[in-house]
């Protein structure tokens, strides 16, 4: 099996950019292992290969990846050609028209906090029609609607969406794998899109000597969305949020989905001070298997409900964690830790993940000593262009936001801006990795639980 990210980006083994990717060998290897764990596991169980490819082809299409959609539809054709045609027709009715004068891009969504209501963005909701539902089946159709939610409405996700999946026939293990698969594809497709832009940018990349970290802990520094069109196949409530169709399943599934009426919810983006609670049950710490404990990588994570929830699919969790660690903590060369955390924060701020933004803005502050500047981005949002006043930080934020839009808007112009700010192509790959990874992490955090105000708490 070729490296899928390279394949989608148009890279071949040994290309200059591929050699730069080799500076993060664990990230590269485990991104591929994530594909294998989520799309082609040895034992697919109730979540069949056919349904995995259905979700993947649909997700890639929503993300505007022609190469990704065709790759996954090819896999799907081998399993079920009728389903492949159904996905193509469904995408024809739902994808963003990038040729329009003002193309509409996600992420869409509403905040529960009145203090953030000015940032609410309406967008299309999907209800799979009868024709596609007859071909795909009710369980798969529910998975398709969940994929549309995570790709385009990540901050609109709520416990009622997990209840709908349970009512449709998914179980808790299957829901975790489904969320991982969709979220992983948001990473895979975005990283490949960023690499493709880097490949085709003027003065195409040659292998460069990786730079020293750009920012140290003492503060020394170097060097959008719109209202959605309704489109065929969309189905929304009278308020445009789809709430009516989404909320009725909670009573049906009972205690299998937990809601928190008295939770102390954050009202604004802040640095630190947030925890996270799950909507479906994690694996109890005492019940963790050896494989699940191994997948946690760090023994202390067994205390954390988020990681114990992801442990329902241990192979996916292990590969994801090792990808994370190499992208963010391998600092033998390349981009500084502060800028990597800044990329994570910018993606999280755009997607509306208050939890991830809190953790990684705090880490960006710790690494850079520039807490006020980080808070400025949290307070003002990520509208382009960034005005933080540091050319490197502004370029990193703008690039991370462009990559995180749905479909991504990262192109050669963003590459040029990053290079103009003094970043090497090795540094740019670190920016792409950090931003793309948090389009994975945000969608897991937003779709499986919610943040709460606490005295302290840090989870990636």
From TrEMBL:
Keywords, comma-separated and alphabetical: Oxidoreductase, Peroxidase
One GO molecular-function entry: peroxiredoxin activity
Record-linked InterPro entries: AhpD-like, AhpD_Avi7169, AhpD_core, CHP04029_CMD-like, CMD-like, Uncharacterised_peroxidase-rel
Domain named Carboxymuconolactone decarboxylase-like: residues: 314-372
Naturally occurring in which organism (per UniProt): Brevibacterium casei
Designated name of the protein: Peroxidase
Residue spans of biased composition, Gly residues class: 220-243
Chain segments carrying region Disordered: 208-245
Superkingdom field: Bacteria
SUPFAM superfamilies xrefs: AhpD-like
